[in-house]
Amino acid sequence: MPPSPAASDGTSLVTEAVLSIDPDLLRHSFLLAGQPGYYYVRIFRKSAEAQPVIVLADTGNIPEASVVNQIDVVAWVTARTLLDQPDTTMEQLGSVGRWITISPPIGSIGAVTNEVLFDGGRPRPRYLSSHAEIEDVVGDTVRPLAPGDFAVESLDARGVRVARVGRA
What we know:
The chain has helices at 67-81, 93-96, 131-138, 152-157; strands spanning 13-21, 37-44, 53-58, 98-103, 112-119, 122-127, 161-165. The chain is α/β, with parallel strands linked by helices. It has one domain. A seven-stranded mixed sheet has the order 6-5-4-3-2-1-7, sandwiched between helices. A hairpin with an 8-residue loop joins strand 4 and strand 5 (112-119). The longest helix has 15 residues, at 67-81. It is globular and about 40 Å long.
């Protein structure tokens, strides 16, 4: 029997936030009806010299704004804002850190997790089949997300800050 999942993230978690990204920054903005995309971001770093591992979870507020559909834009915004690298280009995303995406369960389909490798700015997902694989990439304990944890309201209630990017 596998060990029970951790109730909290490990000590290498350096920040967490909800990114609220203006629809004008996202692809297919005409499908978003003026709604921002929301993404739960956790950044892990084992030491100041270590490359960060960024775990991006889709809050599921709008399917067209899913982290899978918008990974390059969400990663670029994360690098420029939460990682404080304002000059980052799409082509540099692979050298910024390691990227993991988590999509919430939909109906009978469970959560889908990928490590995303960037090749010249183009995302290439590598499916992660277990929570243990996420922790192997991070190198630390990663709190799994229950279905209700993906909602912005749940994250706000836990005190996770919301960072708005785009129009004021």
